Amino acid sequence: MRILFYDTKSYDETSFQEILKSFPGISIEFTKSDLDSRTAALAEGFDAVCAFVSSDVGTHTVEILHSKGIRLILMRCAGFNNVDLEAAAKYDIRVMRVPGYSPEAVAEHAMALALASNRRLHKAYNKVRENDFSLSGLMGFNFYQKTAGIIGTGKIGAAMCRICHGFGMKVIAYDVYQNESLKAFTEYVSLEKLLSDSDVISLHCPLTDDTFHIINIDTIRQMKDGVILVNTSRGALVKTNDLIEGIRMHKFAGVGLDVYEEETNNVFEDRSDEILEHSTTARLLSFPNVVITSHQGFFTKEALAAIAGTTLQNAVDFEAGKESANDVR
Ligand code: NAI
Fold first, then answer.
1. Above 70 in pLDDT, residue 269?
2. Which among 68, 106, 122, 100 has a CA at the least distance from the CA of 292?
3. What is the pTM of this model?
4. Which of 78, 122, 272, 309 has its CA 20 to 30 A from that of 129?
């Protein structure tokens, strides 16, 4: 099988090349172009395309892929809301994905953000580099024996519960479904109780109508003063302007964000003054107790290897005509 791999980053090429040795029937050609209706024609002569969350796999793209003989779209990510599934069904193109790769990768990054914002590692790093060895502005608090509140205890939230338990924290959680395997060390509580009792709050629920802006000025007011808030899930779980208001009210000891509402607007790729002036992310960055990373939670060797392995196994299952739990359609 010949796969055209769109939107290739150097780390994608490394992880897929590494695992390709175990899949002798597959060859991959890598292109830096992302998949959309302008680039779909490049797939002429290939059997499958490999795309990502950033790709535009809308109706027109699918039509062109079909006209070029593509039978399989391999999404190397969990999400597939950028794929027109109806169009894929119409042309009998199979769509497969990677539903989960390394929950620990994201949970460990969530804890890293909590610790970095608490102990002001971002400030400490810069101070020492500038030969300033004073400790002013760097005091944090112990996590040991404090309360961690985990919102959403699926794969990643469960990993976060285990990590917090390992730190000697009391772990409380809120979810619409309870995860039995966590109950030995996690107490499920109402959202209200989680907000009022937690010293560290970490968001691990998906973005849905129910969770959109779950962190807003009302829920922020219910939190303890000096709380740490971490979001590695989806930006729109947090209403950014309300978060800024909360930071101004000195509600938070620290805030760690791997995701934010403006993420998809390429705010920092297009650094025009006007955009930055109106950017809520830029405003967040101006606060000394806020640490922001660029959606890197998933970005570990193990997670990339798992993504590559599952994607190529999906291709093998397709060739063998096997149904798979990773089928989107
Ligand atoms: P999952 O589906 O295993 O778990 C989600 C949990 O949230 C489930 O237990 C579900 O019952 C719960 N939930 C659903 N609605 C809820 C509500 N209204 N209130 C409270 N809990 C609710 O998902 P997984 O794999 O743990 O991923 C969680 C999120 O992490 C994803 O939605 C994704 O947005 C984000 N993510 C972030 C990455 C990063 O690089 N920063 C990478 C991968 C995922």
1. no
2. 122
3. 0.90
4. 272
Over its C-alpha atoms, the chain yields an Rg (Å, rounded) of 22
CA proximity to 211, closest of 244, 239, 242 = 239
Percentage above 70 pLDDT, the chain: 95
Cβ–ligand 1 distance for 155 under 6 Å, the answer: yes
Confidence tier at 262 by pLDDT (50, 70, 90): confident
The SS3 assignment for 44 reads coil
In the residue annotation, 271 being an active-site residue is answered as: no
Summary mean pLDDT of the chain: 94
Residues near 271 by beta carbon (within 8 Å), at least 6 away in sequence:
none
- pLDDT level of residue 281 (50, 70, 90 thresholds): confident
Ligand 1 mutation pick, 108, 233, 292, 304, max ligand atoms within 8 A of CB: 233
Q: How big is the CA angle at 300 (ends 267 and 24), to the nearest 5 degrees?
A: 115
Cα–Cα distance, 74 to 248 (Å, whole number):
45
329 lines ligand 1 (CB under 6 A): no
Say which amino acid occupies 310.
T
Q: Is 65 helix (H, G, I), strand (E, B) or coil?
A: helix
Where helices occur in the chain by DSSP H, the ranges are: 10-20, 59-67, 85-90, 103-118, 121-129, 155-166, 191-197, 217-222, 240-248, 273-277, 280-285, 301-319
- Do the beta carbons of residue 107 and residue 195 sit within 8 Å? no
Task: Name the burial class of residue 317, with classes exposed (0-12), middle (13-18) and buried (19+) by CB atoms within 10 angstroms of its CB.
Answer: middle
C-alpha pair distances (Å), 284 with each of 100, 263, 291: 30, 13, 9
Residue type, 17: Q
Owner of token pair 């699926």: 154
81 strand-pairing partners:
none
- The dihedral through the CA atoms of 21, 25, 31, 35 has a sign that is negative
User: Structure tokens of 47?
Assistant: 């059997």
